[in-house]
User: What shape does this take?
Amino acid sequence: MGSEPESCIDDTRYMTDDDDVIDEYDNVTLMYAKHEKIPMKDFGSEIRATMDIDHLLNKAVLLLDLQETSLEEIFAKIIHEMDIQEPEFTSEQVRSVLFTQDAGNQFHILSRTVQSICTTGSVGGSFDYDQTWICALCMLNTVQHRHVAIARLSHPTNLGRTMQDLRFIIIVIAPSRAKGTKTALETTRTFATLFADMEIRQRLVMAQSVEQFRSTLLSAAKELAMDQNQWRERKSSIHLSHAKEQIFGPEAWYPFRGLVEEFKRRLAIYPSDYLDGIRGHKTVQKLFSTVVFLYFACLLPAIAFGVLNDDNTKGAINVRKVIIAQAIGGIFFSLFGGQPMIILLTTVPLAIYIKVIFKISQELGYDFLAMYACVGLFCQMFLILYSATELCSLMKFATRSAEEMFSLFIAIAFTVESIRAIHNSFKKNYNDCDTSAISMKAARTALNAFKNGSNADSIVGNITSSMSIGDTGSLCRRDTSILYMLLMFGTLWLGLFLYNFRKTPYLTRSRREWLADYALPASVLIMSFTGSYAFSDIEKDRFNLRFEFPLIQMADVTSLPPSGYFVCLLLGFSLSFLFFIDQNITSAIVNNNQNKLKKGTSHNLDLFVVALLNMFLSVFGLPWMHGALPHSPLHLRALADVEERVSQGHVHEVIMNVRETRLASLIAHVMILVSMFFLIPYPLQLIPTSVLHGLFLYMALTSLSGNEMFERLLLLITEQQAYPPTHYIRKVPQRKVHLFTACQLLQLIILCAFGFSPYPFIEMVFPIVCFFFLPIRHTLIPRLIDYKYLDALDGRH
Assistant: This one.
């Protein structure tokens, strides 16, 4: 698409007479020309293509065998015949937009056109225009509907550059504000795809009447859609046969086959996992920035999850235990894990499950740490069984929709925990205080002080002291709850502001990226300093380091009764689904082909190493860990070389190379281990819990970026004209898009109903519910939505 370039600079501008030079420059102007390659319309998958042909062609103006020979005359004839009945529309508006005007208001060149080109195959990649047809398009504020006109000239006519053998002219007029699939360009692309076919043009030349011309175009569109669908089905069948071979394998199966193969492959390149962290252009610089990023990105969430687990288990699993587990687990996996790009963390779903185990142990009267260790050991035995039998291959059936629903569930869990924390703060300092009793007590205090002849400062001090204590003796610090809210939402706002700073025009691009990368630690440190020093006179909620609990203590698993082991077996089996799904989804995202990793996958080996690590953590009462999002892909991106590409006006980033090294994760977690001896209790305990819950909200909102389910939920409340030009909007009818979103939303509601149930025996099965989304996607959803639409909505692209 583009206007025709034209040179308007006159060589005679160097005349010696000044007046003549001025006269010459009065006739000189500059012409801006832009050419952009756009894809052909896929009539088989882009549903709007066939709909546009059926709808617009029946209303289109068709003119056959025009006798006019000049561009202006031809277009004037076509616009006149279109007879557009819009209140504010005039033909002059169309001509002013279709053509570029010179100083004398002469219409001499088309502004926006679409034509097909054919590469010549010569050196330099030159191409030739197909000069037998041209599409001209324009957008007007004065029209409310799309209008199309197609003209066939009586004989091939030379109308200028790229139109030297012109036979067909198509004009498309569309509203300026139109839905993404109904813009002038999209409509033009539909008709241009048909006219780019030489056979279709030949059939249109032979048409004897307007009705025959119209029916020829309609049938050609249907034939093209059928041909493209057949090609896609052939391609799909080949793809499915390959998938079956990849899942089950062409060779004989035996236990631990995949595990042994992955171990041998990773062992052969193990030295390079360290050398790749120090060799290469800017590698050391990348390594340093990644280590700093991982240090804060792992330590701060570890503190936040430690606070959450402390609340859920009454200190049995606390901040100190989570930090030491993070250090041990990170070092162990960076040394022995198969895919070094994966970062292990304890997560919100694991915290929810630990709370379930704690509730059940309290109800049944079991020792929590003994039950926790037993559940963990049973779970890891199942994970070793899964890795030995290559069940990780089943995750190839997992589609993007499962990842999206699980990601939204985690975001909701973050939000729920933060809201619950601020609710408890206000409940403690507002609802649990008897304000009437406090007021009466303050009045009595003031009266007694006045009778005793106390000075004003003493009276105010006595009143303040009396108002701070309710009848039950609990402190009513309302300023604490207000500050809690300010710090929590302040951390969220500052984090989002820095995270989105890369989208602003301020500073340089590298500095904007630097600020965005360190948004998480910067927001926590700044708001912690603000709370600790700017509001030093206000009491703040701080987490307890629980020194009364030993840091590492071996659990007595033999203290459980026989029935307790059966309960632990059920809990461990359900928990194994959570580990299996989370670990493999993280591994799949990291090993995506777009990341251009070169050392291969190791799903089974990673799961096996995670199982061994969590056996140790279970026995010693430390929190479990597995591959975490978004830390793992962020770790990969921090070690990558990224370039910006522009496609159809949209800027996107492309990963060119990744330094697949173990050093960044290893060094960062060694630093976390060392920090245990320098940051506890100070300055670590200066971080208010409100800031940590603000961190939860930050992680919840930033995880929504790129989540297509969330984007489709927003479409339900978005004006159609503002719909983004995403691939599924082009290929799937709107009602099918909303139906698929509704199915996902229903599954998410069911998952939340189990995951946030007040009954622990119901809550314990939420990992199994999540796993059953896979068969639902492949058995029930296709009964509601065709496979070709599901491929666009839920395929890997």
